[in-house]
Predict the structure.
Amino acid sequence: MPATVLVGTQWGDEGKGKITDEIAADFDVVCRFAGGANAGHTVVANGHKLALHQVPSGVMYEGTASVIGNGCIVDPEVLMEEVRMLEGQGISTDNLKISGNAHVVLPFHKVLDGAHEQALGSKNLGTTKRGIGPTYMDKMNRTGVRIQDMLDDDTFRQKLADSLAYTNPILEKVYGLPTYTVDQIFEQLHEDIEWIRPHIIESSAFLNEELEAGKSILFEGAQATMLDIDHGTYPFVTSSNCTAGGAVTGSGVGPTQIKRIIGVAKAYLTRVGAGPFPTELLDETGKKLREVGHEYGVTTGRERRCGWYDANVIKYAARVNGLTDLAVTKLDVLDDFDEIKVCVAYDVDGKRYETLPELEPLVEKAKPIYETLPGWKCDITGVRKFEDLPQEAQDYIAYLEKLAGVRVSIVTVGPDREQTINRFWK
Ligand code: GDP
Ligand code: IMO
Ligand code: MG
């Protein structure tokens, strides 16, 4: 399989890290193509739990090359923290490659993220404060600093000076915050730059050479469809294209190379941060989902908002990503529910919608229409074959499959690598 894309179908935290880790051994390269340290991907292998923000989850496999693609943004300080954590666990980062075209998250981007959120007051987005919006703003504004600018100290200093000439007046005049000097940032990042330098590559060339040599690539998505800057619930989104198209622009690999697009969907639904969430449960059931599913953010520790599975969201994700497969995660979290609800449509001012509308006022008014399915009321965490799941759990998956119009190839029943049911993946 030349190139496969893995994306989140909901509002993030679907278990992309676990699925990537599960299938990464089948690939020669794992490449992240969008987002930065706002991602929090959990990998649990051999009893060890790791939270990855910048490094692709394929890093766990020694024979697999890990690439941070050009569509990503890199926070050198978070990256180095992660490298030290991985090396401390005996996981080598020698094989990590960073695209020269990826943009750098600088200290003032994080300050601007926080300042902007504060200025928004009650209308804030609930960002991760990792500097994501301001860094992508600089990229689009053509005032950003790229990873390749680190290849040479003088170039880095010059690009930093150009960037500060634009940013310092904003910090000072708009937000009344202290400004930065080139020396200050250079000193802060100097050691990180030394480490990063030998890892910088021409990533589009590298990835395409790998494909030409018959190697396979897994593109590991971060964030999710509903957080995509174009297709998500704008403005309550992140600042990158985290849908499948982003794998193309974020890597420099052509769309004809991509043969499979796997969407990861939690068996219920969560969201961190503000914005619409039609099936959100603010009652005891929502609380139970949070407690049983340990729904607290990997990056910020915030409580995740919880609700029932929304088939409209998944249908929408199937459409905008062109999904070929679904991976349904955390099915075990539903083990102890008498009844499980699935949103099959919305009522918007008396009109029935069987997908997520693209117009914001309609989404705001969407009232979920539910079907209720019986729970299975037993522990499924030890199940490894689909046929061994209780009938109600098999029926639940079959129902989700029918609603999505996409086959469910993987089902997960626990956080560990082996707590996975491989149906049609291989
Ligand atoms: P990602 O951002 O999409 O990689 O997902 P996160 O790592 O932020 O959140 C998923 C959480 O669910 C992590 O704590 C995982 O260890 C955990 N997890 C993944 N799959 C399963 C599963 O099948 N069952 C349970 N109980 N937990 C899971
Ligand atoms: P993974 O890859 C869940 C959310 C934030 C906020 C919005 C904008 O772990 O699934 P940002 O810091 O990107 O400007 O925040 O997007 N968000 C995520 N929510 N999982 C993520 O990543 C997220 N990355 C960003 O909570 O609502
Ligand atoms: Mg996460």
Remarks:
- The chain is about 30% helix and 20% strand.
